[in-house]
């Protein structure tokens, strides 16, 4: 299932990019035509009494024509924590032997890949097709791939601000870590999103992107993914970028919990399933490098 999903993502991205043509003026017209590449690096290390290692990377490749844009994105975040357990063997404060054991656990991990092609038909209207893939086992998602085809409107496109909205039909292929027998793994849906950029000062920008997805097979299954960022230019090629991502799902995936029966009783099953939390948040401070 994992290999099939990855192959479908690659084929979907290839199909989106292969359909590009060169005509007109695309949203983001102040950018030079041709290719551009940016990468974001995030790292945190703590040592001493607490040991936590976090590393993240995001990359984006864009090719811009006069009326079209092809975009590929990918990234990953991983965090691990080392827990220290201490015990003392002896008879008093002055006579004991201290023993320490350390156990390292992975506490967060997520991967994503996206591909999208936009074509602008007029100054206010464009069409697009795209695909994205996600793996976030700590949120209960082993693999989720979504295909989208839709259109959008450009509401503001100036040197100081840009704002556009998307509307699309989607189809999702999802595999959870713990299967939910009452929810279909493949389902049609609809998506709404907005993309806002504004320049606050000569060196500071504000970005806000929201994506909302609705499962048409189960309308209680609604999810939102919003990212707000404040890039600050260090030089022509470097940015300091703090950002906050909020991912909310009304019907989250399930997880298994060990079942311990009361004293003197037996359990019919070793585990029970419960829903995970509806909201996940990621705060990052990244160094952005433009090529």
Kindly state the number of beta strands: 15
The gyration radius over C-alpha positions equals 23 Å
Shape: flat
Placed side by side, the strands forming the largest sheet appear as 1-2-3-4-5-6-7-8-9-10-12-15
Rounded to the nearest angstrom, the distance between the terminal CA atoms is: 36 Å
- What is the N-to-C succession of helices and strands? HEEEEEEEEEEEEEEE
| Weakly predicted, low-confidence segments | 1-25
Account of the protein in words:
The structure is a single chain. The protein is mainly beta and 291 residues long. The protein has one domain: monomeric porin ompg (Porin, Beta Barrel). 6% of the residues lie in helices and 66% in strands. It contains one helix and 15 strands; from the N terminus they run αβββββββββββββββ. A twelve-stranded antiparallel barrel has the order 1-2-3-4-5-6-7-8-9-10-12-15. A two-stranded antiparallel ribbon has the order 13-14. A hairpin with a 4-residue loop joins β4 and β5. The radius of gyration is 23 Å and the shape is flat. The protein starts with a helix and ends with a strand.
